[in-house]
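Give me the fold.
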Amino acid sequence: MHIAICDDNIAERKQTERLMKREADKLIASGDTLYMDSYGNVDALLGTPMQYDGFLVDFRNTENFSSIEVLHALRSKGVTAPVCIVYPRDDESYWDKKSPADYPAETLFLGKPLRPAELHETILKLKRISQNTVPSIELRGERETFYVAEDEIISVRQKGTKSLVKLTENREVLIGYDAYSLFEEIRHGHECFVMPNLASMINLSYVDHIRLNFIHLTNGERFRCHRKVLNYVRAYTKGEL
C-alpha cells in the first residue's frame, strides 16, 4: 500500500512520518507492506497523485488552499483513491467554515494529535476502500496527463500519430499516441471499448444505432466498422454478451 502524507506544517508532517513508519513495521510483521511519501506543497502533490492508494491531508497554513481544496484538486485530476482529512481535535473553530457534512460522503477523518490505534484503523480503512476503487484511465496529453473514468470516454479518433479523445460534457483531449496503443492499455478490465477500425475506438455505452457499415454514437459521431466488429457491437447492444 502506498500512502501520501500531505501536511503543510513540517514539524507535524515529520511526526506523522514517524508514526507511519511504526505502522509500516507492524504491517511487515503481518506480511503486508506500507510505503509513504510526504508533501508540504500542493503543486508537488498534484504532479503524480495516481500512484497512491490513499491520502492523509492536513493543510492549514497555505493561503487559499485548505484541506478541502486539496481534496477537490485531487478529484478534479481524476484521483479516486480514498482521502482522510486530518484535523486538530482540540480546535473547535476548525469546523466553523467547513463541517464534515461539506465533504464528500466517502471522506475519512482523523483527529490530531494522532493516536496510534486510530491511525492504524484509518490505514486499514484506506486499504479496504482502495481495493474496491475502480482505477481511472490515464490519458497522456502533450502538456498534461488526465485521469478519467471509463464512462467519461465516448470515442477516440486517430489524427496522424496522435489521437483525439472525445469526453462527456463536450470535452476533448489530444493524446500523443495512436488509438490502438490506448486500446491495448485499457482493454483488460474495460470491456465496453472496441475498435471499429484500426484508427478509432468507441465506448459501446454511447452507441445510438447501426446503419449499414457505420456505427452512430449518441454525440452525433459515426464510424465505419469492420464486419466482425459490427456483429459484436450488435450483440453487445442487445445484451446478448
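The first strand starts at residue 2 and ends at 7.
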